[in-house]
Structure formats: C-alpha cells, structure tokens
Structures
1.
Amino acid sequence: MKSQGSSTRLVTAAAVVGVTLMIASALGAAQSSTYAVPKTADGKPDLNGIWQAINTANWDLEDHPAQAGLPQTGAIGAIPPGQGVVEGGEIPYRPEALTKKKENFQKRLTDDPEVKCYLPGVPRATYLPYPFQIIQGTKQIMMVYGYAEANRTIHMDKVKPEPAPIDSWMGRSHGRWEGNTLVVDAAGFNGEAWLDRSGNFGSDSLHVVERYTRTGPDHIAYEATIEDPKVFTRPWKISMPLYRRMERNVRILEFKCVEFSEELLYGHLRRQPGK
C-alpha cells in the first residue's frame, strides 16, 4: 500500500506540474499576442537596440552532435552539440552542391571565410556569436556588426529592389514594412560566404528574404527564407529568436580580426632563411 500511495502522489505531482506548464505557456502566448509594439516617431515598429542570437547556428544550421574541432585546444576548440534552426530539419541541396558542402566541412579549419576574417554575409551575420546593433531611420536602417567591422544599410526608400552595382560579401538590402514586421530583401552577393562553420554555403545567385518582428520588450522573432537555384532544389527557411542585450552601457565592440588571420593567409609567403 505504501508503494501504491507513493506512486499516486508522484502521478498527482506530475499532473500538477503539467497543468502549471500549460497555464504558463498559455499566458506567455497571450502576452505575446497582446504585446503593444513600441513605435518610432514615424509610427513604425521600433527595432532599435543591441540584439544577439543565442544558439549554435553559426556552428551548424542543422541538428548536430558534439564533434572534435582543433585537437590542440581540447574542449575549447570542439564543436558543441546543437538543435537546428532549419524548418523541416534538412537543407535541400542539389546532389553536386551537397558534395561541395561535404568538401567544405573537411576543409573548414582553413577555408571557412570566418577563419580568414572575411565579412560574414547574410544571413550569417545575424547569428554569429556576437551582438549586433539596429539603428533605425526613416529612409534607411543600419545594422552594425562587431565582427570584421561588418555593416549593412537597409534601403527603405525604394519602391522596388534595385540591382546591386557590384556583387559583395554583404550584398544589397531593401526593406519594407508588413504590419509590425520588417521585411528585408537581400541579394547581390559574391557567392564566397558560408552560412555556418560546417560548410553550408550559397552562390552568387543567393537571395535572402528576412523578417524581423518584435514579440516582446526584449525579443525579436527572426526568419530568413533562402533561395539559390544553383545550390538548392527549393527555397528553405530558418527561424530563431533574437534577444536584447541588457547590460549597463552595452555597446558594439569592434572585433578587428585581420591581424589574427595573417599567418593563415600569408604565412606561406614568408621568406625562409637561406632561400
């Protein structure tokens, strides 16, 4: 009887916890649906602030286990396990592109553009493990990233997207408002950027449509639809929350990483003694 009573109490406790979690979830959903988005002077949703993604997407957009990284740095250089941010779970590669992705992974310690301190591209700049700042104006919105001094201007004053004058790492971005959501259309990329450290990549045909939606005082729901007919069989989407940095006097610090990549990039050009 004592064992049965204990089991009954455990079941009851579990049920109470379950009901409590359901109520908390319902209250959270209700707060999100009734959240009054703050507005700027021109009546648009206010996205100003310093934000950061907190996940492992920069290591790998898809689900991944822990893996070895740099043997000489032990656990510090290892790849942490992580849950993917790809809707549907898998990136729809063309067969030949998937082969290239696997080759990238094998050469990631030397070929990843992040290792070389090249600009991160879009959407990778959003989920690098560093904060970024949104500075919102009426005709333009600036996004500033500390890594490699990257930045981009979202052109809000164009009736339709204009072709980029030249392909580049960060491309050209045009924005519009759909209700409380900032929609950013980005294209004009040079095809050199990777999407993460595991070798996922795009080409110079990459087209990214991002959506930024304030869902609370300190949260933005971020989505990016990625299209590239040279690499993928169909468009696919990633999504994640962005969190406001709340430290006192928080600011974007410049991560000038060029000097740390010089040996990797140019060490082979050093003149050897006697040669």
Note: Residues 106 and 199 are 8 Å apart (CA to CA).
2.
Amino acid sequence: MQALVDGVKNGIVGTIKGAGEIVDTVADTVSGSLSNALKGTGNVGVALTEAVTDVTTGAIQGVSQMGGDLGRAAKGAVIGVLQGTKDVGANALDATGSTAERLISTTAEVGASLTEGAAQTIEGAIEGAKRVGVNAIDAVTVASAGAVKGLGGVGKVTTTTASEVARGIVEGAAHVGGDLGAAAKGTLLGVVRGVKDLGTAGVEMIGTTAGTLVTTTAKVGGNLGVTAKGAVEGAIAGAKEIGVDTAAAASAAANGALKAAGSVSTTAVDEIRRTLTGTIAGVKVVLKEPFTQTA
C-alpha cells in the first residue's frame, strides 16, 4: 500500500540526510518497516509479496530522491528484507526472490545499469544470508532467478538485458565469495521462466546468457566448469518447471557455454567439454562442435 511505500521512502530520506551511509540506512529502514508490516498478516503468500514490493519500492524511491547510488540501495534492500523476514518468521527465500525481482524491474524502468543493479542485489543476498543464518547458496539461486524474472515483469527480457543481468550476477557473487554455480543456476532458471517456450529466440537467449556467465567467470577468475554446469542445471530445472523440452534447454545452455569458452582459451573449451559431457540432472547433454577456439 502507498502508506508503506511513503513511510519507507521518507524514513530513508530523513536518515540519509543525517548519516549518508546508504547500505546500512536502507537495510535498517527496510528491516524495521517489513517487520512491522508483516506482524499479524500470517507472513505468507500475497501479504509477504506485497509487503516486500512496497518496502523495496519505497527504499529505491527514497535513495533516488536523494540522488544516491541505486546499486547500493539494492544491496541494502536485500539485506533488510532478509533481516525483516527473520524477525517475524516469514519465508526468507521467498522474500529474497521477490526483492530481487522488484529491484531489477525498477532498475530497468529508470534506465540505470542492470549489471550494477544485479551485482549489488547478489552481494546483498549473500551478505544478508550470512547475517541471518540462511543458506547462502539457496539465497543466490533465488535472487538470481528473481533478478531475471524482474526484466520480464516490465517487458524488457531480451538477449541483451538478460546478458547484462547475468554479468552482474557473476560479478556480484565473485566479489563477496559467493557460489558461482548457484548464481549460474539461478540465472538460467530465470531465463527459461522468462522465455516460456524454446523457439529460436528462446534458444538464442539461453545460449547467449550461458555464454555470458562463462566469459564473466573467466574474467573474475572463477571455475568455468562449475559455472557451466550450474547454467545447464538451471536450464533443466526451468524447463521442467514450465513443461518444455529439458534436453533442448540443456543443449542450448551447454552449447552456449562451450561456444563462449572458445573465446577464452583451448583449456577453457576442454574443461567445459569434460564437465558437460554425459548426463546432468538426469538429462543427456548433447554438445555440438566445432567451435572457434582461442589459443
């Protein structure tokens, strides 16, 4: 409701004027506001989603009004939501996914950097999970999936935007020591949810996003095999969820990852080929060759 949005926004505006630390200010304001909003609601379903959406919206509006860093606001919002849900016994993972979805949709709407927004969202999910004792791998998975879903909510889920978000997810996870396999899995899960079918455009988006995950992992010095396998696992999980061909989804992700590895090194190609050859999550993965390889 608007009162909750305005309350969070005004609280942040007043506090930032006096303190200036965006992450902590947003986290504290969101946490307290969410806890109060959820008391007596049952903390589940629509009540949880609506409350999370409202406090997240208020936080972004407040920081935006002050001309603050929206990426830092995103990080603080996720931390605050995790703390707030813990305080009242609500489902922290459901709330994390909803928060990431709202944050990225807002980022897309205002034309801010999707890569930076996604990176800070994932950092917030990891840091918040550690603070409240939630499984960080699960938090990264649901936050990554929610972030990509957020693009679909505002009609901006394209191959380009999905890749921008994927890049940020890996960068954010790597920056705070998060699990890149979980980040990749959540990203592809969100992509498959967003494309709804496996026509030409859907296959291209899955493959390109998996490729972006691999090239970004290479840049941050992560394990390419772990990322590639996570991407395939996410594609399979998403395909099962929406009732489309799991083999086609797995193949699209695997071949996108392998093709991208060709721009990294022959070692990268060999590593990903070894990792993805065979059966993953009960699905036979079919790799297509050859790909141009960089020495």
Note: Residues 45-65 form the longest helix (21 residues).
3.
Amino acid sequence: MQHVLRLLETRDSVQVAELAETFSVSEVTVRSDLSTMAGQGLVARIRGGVRALRDGPEVGFDLRLRLEVEPKRAIARAAAAMVDDGEAVALDASTTAYYLALELRSMRELVVVTNGLLVATALADAPGITVLVTGGVLRLSAMSLVGDLGTDVLRSTRINKGFLGARGLSLERGLMDLNPDEVRIKQEMADACEQVYGIIDGTKWHRSALLPFVQVEELAGLVTDLGAPADQVAAWRAEGLDVVVADPGPHEAVPARPRDLRRPPVPDRTVGR
C-alpha cells in the first residue's frame, strides 16, 4: 500500500497487473488490497487499477501526509532545534513543513511566514506564534497559495531561516519540484531568507523533478533521515553543506490529521451557552 501511494505521487494511476508482478502475488490479492485502500479514502478505483484522488482540496496533501511519517517527524524535530525564540522563519506547503509547524507550536515570539494553508492552520492557535500567510491563488491539491500576491509579500520581507521541502535534489541542479507556480513561490521564499534549509526525507534522494528552485550554493544545509543514501550525504557534505541526518527513534503516535477546511465547524450545542 505504501508503494502504491509513492507511485501515485508522480503518476496518475497504477495497474493491478504491474503490482502483481512487482510483489509476486496474485491479482486477486492486489485487488483486495486496492479495495481496502479505496475504502480508506486513499485512492479511487478504476478499471484495472487505481488512480490518485483529484476531487478535493485536502486529498492530495492528506495522501502525502501518510507517507514516511516517522522520518518526516524526525526531520521536523531536528529542524525545530535550529529555530530560536524571536526569529522569523519561512515554511512552504510541504507535508514535512506541516510536521515542522507542529514542532514549533511551543516557541515564543516566533513569526512564521508560509504559503501553506494547512501549515498556517497547524499554528493558528499557538499563543507564541504570529502567522503571516503570503496570499495568492489557491492550489487545491496542495492547499497552498501561489502567484504574484505571494511573491510581492515575500519581496518586502526579511526572514531569518527558511525550511523548504522538495520532490527531488541533485548536486548539479539543487532542490527541485514539479509545479511551476510552487517553484516560483519557493524561489521567492528562499530569496527572502538569510539561511535556507532543505527538509528532505530519504525517498527524495533518488528522485529528480522538472524545475530547480534553490541551487546548492544558496543552501545553508539539509535536514534528512536515515533513509538518505550515505554516499550522497557524503557528497553533499564534501561540497561544504551541513547535512543533518535525523534518527526517527521509537515509534510514536501519529498526530491528528489536518482539519478539513472544506467543512464548516461543528456548532457548540452545550446547554446554557
């Protein structure tokens, strides 16, 4: 099931026959697992396989949030340790940035600049944090804001540290992503920051993507997990980059899923209020 979710990050669909061959199991077994995934709201069934869900603002983000949970939380803890009270930090709309937002909730006099609505929601009621949302056009699949309104805000802002996720990375091209609008806002976010850190789980080290948004020389460092290939980590360090490899440690309970911004809040029906 995890394999299917990873494939659907970069593909429209996955076929039963392909999965049966990959895992050396019967197509009946594969269909049963895919039906279970569909019943959990992770994928949609199509003839001969499944496809990624595309019909709501939360689904794309929620699906990615279920991948590599413990490594992402370990990365978030390590990145949060780099943030000091009183700083201004930028977080993009990545799922790792969402977990980082959860780790920052106890900070004091912190300003967080983000283009991620669910990242902002995770910090909305944190008493010591001021959240600045960049504004722009809503991208439903990522619940992110992109466009000129966001870039205008960032061009007039100075931020101490930025933590940005990516779909892929390489020493030749730096950090990369797929969507041109997301790439543009990430570039503006990076330009506004004194220090930029990539928050990259181990699965991203084997990937490339369409568009680079931060070059190697513009990075202060990377925060990753034990899944990162040791030879590539060593190569990045040889270029003078600080690469922090976080250990997930003992398994912990997964935090609550982001609130669904499509649904109105449940009214308080307590007697006497």
Note: Residues 2-55 form a domain with the Arc Repressor Mutant, subunit A fold (CATH 1.10.10.10).
4.
Amino acid sequence: MAICRAAPLRGLARGACALVTATDQSGPAGQKRLVIVGASGMVGGYALRYAIENPRVIRVTSVGRKTLGISHPKLTEVVHQDFTNCSSLAEMLLCQDAAVFCLGTYTGSVSDADLRKITVDYTGEFSRVLHGSSPGAAFSFLSGNGADPTGRSRMPFARYKGEAENALLAAGFPHVYIFRPAYIYSVEPRKEPNFGYRLLRAIYPAFRILFPDQVIRADDLARAMIDVVLLENEHGPVFENSDIRAMVKSLHSASAQARGST
C-alpha cells in the first residue's frame, strides 16, 4: 500500500523517506504507463528521472523495497518488501504498457543463496504477476556482462543472470529486452560497493578510452532501457555493452536533430 506525502523532485537521486502516489490520468494517444522496479538503485534512479521527464510517459509506477522521497504528478510509488510473493501487486500492475526491471545486488554483498533469490526468484515472480495483469507489456531487464543462459559458467552471477533471462524470454511477453552492460559508470559520486568498482572509477578516464566497449554511463544505460520499451524496438532481445553504446549514440543524434529542427 502506498502512503501519500509530498516531497521535492530535487530529492530524486537521494534516499529520503516518503511515499507518493498519483491520481489516474489520461493523455494523448501514444503516451505509455511504465513500471520501474528498483528505482532506489543507481540505474533505476536515472530511469525514473528520465521517465518522469519524458513526454511520451503519462504514468510512472515505482516498485521497490525502499522509499524514494520524491513527489511528482506522474508518479505512484509502491513499497513492496517480499519479492518472493508479488501477488499483492496484481491490481496495481493492471493496464501497464511496460516494465523496466533494475532490481539487483552485487556479487559478494550477499550470500550465494540470496544472490540467486534476488537475481532469479525476484525477477521470475514479478514477471509472473505482471504478465497475469498486463500480458501485452514490454519488459526491459538489467542483466549483466557475461550472463550465461546455458548455465555452464563457473561464475554464480553469470549463471543466475542467464537463468533470469531464460525465464523472462519464456514468460510470454510480446517484447523482452535484455541489457548486458559491462562496467557501469556512476555519473554522480557514490560509495562504491567494493574495491573493484573503486579502482575502475579511479581509472575511468583512461579505461573508457582504451576499452570503450567495456564501459557505459549509468544515465545512458537507463535512457536506453526506457526508450527501447517506449519505441518497442524490434532489435534484440539481447543488447551487449557495444550494442547499448550504439543505441545511445543513435538516440543522442536523433535528439540533436530534433532540437535543430525546432
């Protein structure tokens, strides 16, 4: 259940506690209703910001385990703690056009059992309920570089992401888009989750020049995940890091041309 409380939009990237909801809206044909899962995370936060600002989006529903501290007429926020059982979300997920799923965790931050539960079980349970409520929705999923749908990888993260991908592709959605970013660069400074991320952030200026297809900005990744479901891109269903970068470049070029024509 969502509790109403107003909070300034400038709190979007922060973790202040508040729940917001929006009244039902209608708008021009072509505008869509999106669900964003995991908007308190790095990529999910940028996805939420971009969706709220996007005129093609009429309604954004944020579903997550933490409150966001944001208020906006487009936004409905739902705090849901138990992603092993999403049945209570069924009514809220009616008539949604698309979902952008960014909920996850880092390897080493939880036990192996919890890593699989968060990566595979949470994704599968949410997609099950969403498909039951909105079978025509598109689904954009934040996977990861090296995800292995064959299940042969020695890396648990790769196996579990691959297992989640397989479940989504078999769920029955008309459009599933799987994003496999490599190193995701947080545009805004944050507390990095481990030494590897701290090191990569420190050497990012050189790393992005030497290995451009191994990096992606968090805001660019989020924008691609939103735009692909808004446009119902026929490419995919899997986008590796180089594909995401190409998509972002194309989107930036299209935006620049649109601004130049006005």
Note: The two ends are 43 Å apart (CA to CA).
